[in-house]
């Protein structure tokens, strides 16, 4: 199985502090992966690099069958290649309705002229309704998203990611601020999604990671400390040392 | 089950209706076509106000919807005025030169050209027609320049600024610097546009024998049509997905980027389009004003523009129109010296001087206490209230809509 995303030897430092240090990472086209690590391990910086927000000082990030160099693309181009990202804090467009948020995310041409003359077809409306239903917002379509509860905003953002139909989903702490029932729903959704696409979940809630039941990559001080099943990595003495302290 | 464009934008129909009634009403009260209740100079003022409403819509698109606080749109407005002014002045001077030619033989093109040049540029001590006046004799070319010159300037400026991701206050300062530079350049006599004299006599339309009474009404209609079209176009732009993206950029541009939209391209598109709208407004404004000089393009003018939109309520098209109309008409009233002075005994408040203070104060008060501006009154009628967000703005960006500005 060839990798969908191949990150090789990236390093980046901010004012002399090495946030990412010679990190390599690979994920297949239909795989679920959890990335864990203590605060400051470089989890978010890693996502920033893949999505084009931060440029690494060295290393390579290759994407897809044609091995496109993502480092040469900007954020919008990377998103159009099929990398979707969910942020830690829910970021939806609060001044706009649930429908407008989802319509904007819906996979379609993104250049200004196409967008200017784009009007939703019946199919698009159906797709938006289906996505909204999937994330439990089926009866909230006309509400301004700013009025939704925190949890609903999280779901709306996940819905926007679904509408985008990415090939790789980067999810930053999806369980934060969710109730137990919502967490279970989220886990089920992520597992389901990973059957058709690559999903990377950054999380430091071990219980949540255990429920995902997938390969785990442990980051520490900007590089990979261990990789394997959760049981494998948690029995690794280096991981124990990092997590439990000396 | 698909609502039409008008059904989704009820304000368009109401707006067009009010605009049509207003224009018709003024026509029926004008000197040329009606009872003469409204003086010709008042008709001109109203026509100019419509042009200001049009540039306010442009400002609302770029600031209210996209969050780019441009302080340069009056530069584009002025440039549009200069482009049409060049033709007006050249063609008018040619008429005068030809009619006053006394020789038995008709003038050669070279003689005609020289005569026009010395007439137009005598005031700055030159008798050469600068090369930028090459097409001044051709109305179609100058009309094309009304769109092309400001459009190109906005495109190049925007491309440079947005590509390097200059945002917020820094972008505002940059646009202000551009306006200042342009205005200072035009103040020079050798810039080819008559320095601080500017272009004058623009109210006389070459080849038209009708008097100012009739002309003023024609321009009122032209301005009304332009404003109506501008409103419909803007409503079309902001009502669809493009409008969603614009508002997204205003509130949280990083998020829009991660959805795959090229934020820079969108900003450039909006900036250039609104520059062209501003230029067209200027091209209609200055023939009514009769004179244009570089002082019109001062940075203060563009700040006024932001004040109008803020007082009207940004992020809604009718807000911009209401703000521009209200403030500029009140301003005409105050500065016209017709408002009675207030005698405090120890000091007399002369409104011609104190009007600016009043405007500044009302801007501060609106920002503090009624962020939705005058359109807040319309919301009151509609029964809309601001969303309760505990004081949070609707997005992390500088230009993001604030809680109190938003519609529920």
UniProtKB/TrEMBL annotation, chain A:
InterPro entries: AAA+_ATPase, ABC_AA/LPS_Transport, ABC_transporter-like_ATP-bd, ABC_transptr_urea_ATP-bd_UrtD, BCA_ABC_TP_C, P-loop_NTPase. The keyword Repeat does not apply. GO terms for cellular component: plasma membrane. It holds the Pfam family BCA_ABC_TP_C. CDD domains: ABC_Mj1267_LivG_branched. One of its GO terms (molecular function) is ATP hydrolysis activity. Keywords: ATP-binding, Nucleotide-binding, Transport. Residues 5-246 form the ABC transporter domain. NCBIfam families: urea_trans_UrtD. This is Urea ABC transporter ATP-binding protein UrtD. It comes from Paenirhodobacter populi.
TrEMBL record, chain B:
Pfam families: BPD_transp_2. Residues 389-408 are annotated as: Disordered. It is a multi-pass membrane protein. It is found in: Cell membrane. The chain crosses the membrane at residues 12-33, 45-65, 71-91, 139-162, 169-187, 218-238, 265-285, 291-310, 317-334, 354-371. Keywords: Cell membrane, Membrane, Transmembrane, Transmembrane helix. This is Urea ABC transporter permease subunit UrtC. GO terms for cellular component: plasma membrane. One of its GO terms (molecular function) is branched-chain amino acid transmembrane transporter activity.
């Amino acid at each position: 199985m060839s990798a969908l995303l191949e990150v090789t030897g990236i390093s980046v430092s901010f004012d002399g502090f090495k946030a990412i240090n010679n990190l390599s990472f690979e994920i297949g086209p239909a795989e679920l992966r959890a990335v864990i690590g203590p605060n400051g391990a470089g989890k978010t910086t890693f996502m920033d690099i893949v999505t084009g927000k931060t440029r690494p000082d060295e290393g390579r990030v290759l994407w897809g069958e044609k091995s496109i160099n993502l480092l040469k693309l900007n954020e919008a181009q990377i998103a159009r290649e099929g990398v979707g990202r969910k942020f830690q804090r829910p970021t939806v467009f609060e001044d706009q309705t649930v429908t407008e948020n989802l319509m904007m995310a819906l996979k379609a041409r993104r250049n200004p002229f196409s967008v200017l003359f784009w009007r939703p077809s019946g199919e698009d409306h159906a797709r938006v309704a289906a996505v909204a239903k999937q994330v439990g917002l089926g009866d909230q379509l006309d509400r301004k998203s700013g009025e939704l509860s925190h949890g609903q905003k999280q779901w709306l953002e996940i819905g926007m990611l679904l509408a985008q139909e990415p090939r790789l989903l980067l999810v930053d702490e999806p369980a934060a601020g969710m109730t137990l029932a919502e967490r279970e729903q989220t886990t089920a959704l992520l597992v389901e999604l990973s059957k058709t696409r690559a999903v990377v979940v950054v999380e430091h809630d071990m219980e949540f990671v255990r429920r995902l039941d997938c390969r785990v990559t442990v980051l520490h001080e900007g590089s990979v400390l261990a990789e394997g099943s959760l049981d494998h990595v948690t029995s690794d003495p280096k991981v124990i040392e990092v997590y439990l302290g000396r | 089950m698909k609502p039409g464009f008008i059904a989704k934008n009820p304000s368009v129909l109401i707006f067009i209706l009010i605009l049509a009634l207003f224009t018709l009403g003024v026509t029926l009260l004008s000197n040329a076509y009606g009872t003469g209740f409204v003086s010709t100079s008042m008709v001109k003022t109203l026509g100019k106000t419509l042009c200001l409403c049009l540039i306010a819509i442009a400002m609302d698109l770029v600031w209210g919807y996209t969050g780019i606080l441009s302080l340069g749109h009056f530069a584009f407005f002025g440039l549009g005025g200069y482009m049409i002014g060049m033709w007006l002045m050249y063609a008018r001077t040619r008429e005068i030169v030809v009619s006053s030619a006394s020789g038995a033989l008709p003038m050669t093109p070279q003689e005609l050209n020289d005569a026009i040049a010395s007439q137009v540029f005598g005031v700055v001590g030159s008798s050469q027609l600068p090369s930028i006046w090459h097409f001044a004799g051709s109305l179609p070319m100058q009309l094309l320049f009304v769109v092309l010159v400001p459009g190109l300037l906005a495109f190049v400026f925007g491309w440079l600024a947005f590509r390097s991701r200059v945002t917020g206050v820094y972008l505002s300062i940059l646009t202000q610097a551009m306006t200042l530079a342009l205005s200072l350049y035009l103040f020079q006599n050798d810039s080819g546009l008559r320095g601080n004299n500017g272009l004058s006599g623009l109210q006389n339309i070459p080849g038209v024998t009708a008097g100012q009474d009739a002309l003023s009404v024609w321009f009122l209609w032209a301005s009304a049509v332009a404003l109506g079209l501008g409103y419909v176009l803007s409503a079309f732009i902001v009502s669809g997905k493009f409008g969603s993206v614009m508002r997204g950029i205003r509130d949280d541009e990083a998020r829009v980027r991660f959805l795959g939209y090229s934020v820079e391209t969108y900003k450039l598109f909006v900036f250039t389009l609104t520059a062209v709208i501003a230029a067209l407004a200027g091209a209609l404004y200055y023939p009514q004003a009769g004179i244009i000089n570089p002082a019109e393009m001062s940075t203060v003018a563009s700040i006024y523009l932001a004040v109008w939109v803020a007082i009207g309520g940004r992020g809604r098209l009718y807000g911009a129109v209401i703000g521009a109309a209200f403030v500029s008409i009140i301003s005409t009233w105050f500065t016209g010296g017709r408002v009675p002075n207030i005698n405090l005994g120890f000091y007399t408040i002369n409104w011609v001087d104190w009007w600016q203070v009043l405007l500044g104060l009302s801007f501060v008060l609106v920002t503090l206490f009624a962020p939705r501006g005058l359109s807040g009154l319309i919301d009151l009628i509609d029964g809309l209230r601001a969303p309760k967000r505990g004081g949070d703005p609707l997005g992390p960006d500088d230009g993001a809509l604030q809680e109190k500005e938003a519609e529920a």
